[in-house]
Structure formats: structure tokens, C-alpha cells
């Protein structure tokens, strides 16, 4: 059979199945909006979901987390203390499954959802291309890079707004705020300065010695990138499932 035909058929089926009242997958423990134990329930639900979460849950638009593969991250800045144009392709992040949960709080009255996680170590590898100037030093390279983030705590706050679609209540996340703190960073960029090994070694040394100042300089770019990565999953999740399905009204059983 014609390949295009199959793809079209699958798309049609997908649209038909979505319908107006998409149901949550049955393995999800449902929590009730007005339950006095909402946050305990949310935490239990998250814990129960964790193994699947790491494999990815296509029904909930959650990609595989171990490893998490991001096709492309762009970080560009032309103003302020840094001038940086960089692209990271095929970014592979490992270590996400080894997190601990510091905080998981749902505040339905404010349509606010907070999650704070600590990752002992996140390892990232990607192809990179960088051109710019950072802390007064020219930076130029194109190759493979590895970054280790040690003891990173990431707090994400979502603030939504209700709207009507097909006669049901949905949420749209107006704010996706991401904040992070970390204890150490190890960076290695291959093939800096067109493969000049001496210059490249010196730059890597410089980057590792100055990681703290550097991390502050790229914080707005990192935050923006994290926000974009999170938003794409979050937007799909909330536009596919109504609020009443995600977090039903009532106190529960
Ligand atoms: C990890 O970072 C937090 C701050 O975000 C800090 O309080 C804690 O002491 C750090 N732990 C280690 C093992 O470095």
C-alpha cells in the first residue's frame, strides 16, 4: 500500500480518536481538585507514574526522559555582556531518572502548579556550533560537546488560565517559569578554533575554571531553552485533555 495513504489514514484515525473528550490513560492515578489530600495524591500519582515517565508517555505527549533527546537547541544573544550564537543538535540528556522530588504542589484556586526536582548529575552530549564572545574571550567551534551539571535543582511553576473549547473547560498555561541552581559544571568542547588543540585546551580550561560566572551569563539563554522544551509538552497536554479530565472537580472518594 502507498505509504502516504497509510500516514493519512493514521492521521485521520488520530483526529477521530481525539474527539472532544480525550480520556486519560487508565494507569494514571486521578486526583480530585477539592480533595484535602490533593498534594499527597499528586505526589503518589507522580511516583506511580515515574517508571513510565522515564520511558515516555506518548498519550500524554511526554517524551522519553532517559535519555531525553532534543533535536535542536538554539541559544542566541546579541545584547548585554555576551554575544553568542550557538546551536546544539541531537542533544542527549541522561540522568533525569535519578531525581528526587523536593516539592510538588497544585493550587487549583490559583491555577498554579509547582514542581521542584533535584538531579544529582545530568550528562549532556550533542553536536554543537558556537560563534561569539564570552567574558571578553572569542569563542569559535564546531564539533561534539559534553556537559555535566552537578547537583542541579530545578523549580518549575506553571500558571494557567481557563478557557472553553467544545463545551469543556481547558487550561492554557500563560506562564511557564523555570528557575535552577547548580553546584558544579564540567564542560568539554571538541574542535574549538578550527581544531587548534593548544587554543582549544586553554579555552576548555578557562570555561571550567569560570563556570560559575559563565553559568550566570548564559542563565537567561538556558532558562529560555528550558522553557521552550517544557512548553511544547505542556501545551500539547493541556490542549488535549480538558481541565475537568486532568483534575476532576470534587473531593474524590
Ligand atoms: C546541592 O545544592 C543545594 C542548593 O540548590 C545545596 O543546598 C546542597 O547543599 C547541594 N548538595 C550538594 C551535595 O552539593
UniProtKB/TrEMBL annotation:
Keyword Signal attached: yes
Gene3D superfamilies: Haemolymph juvenile hormone binding protein
Range of residues in the leader sequence: 1-22
GO biological process annotation, one example: circadian rhythm
Keyword entries, A-Z: Biological rhythms, Signal
Top-level taxon in the UniProt lineage: Eukaryota
Cellular component annotations (GO), alphabetically ordered: extracellular space
The family this protein is said to belong to: Belongs to the TO family.
PANTHER family linked to this entry: CIRCADIAN CLOCK-CONTROLLED PROTEIN DAYWAKE-RELATED, PROTEIN TAKEOUT-LIKE PROTEIN
Protein name: Protein takeout
Gene for this chain: Jhbp5
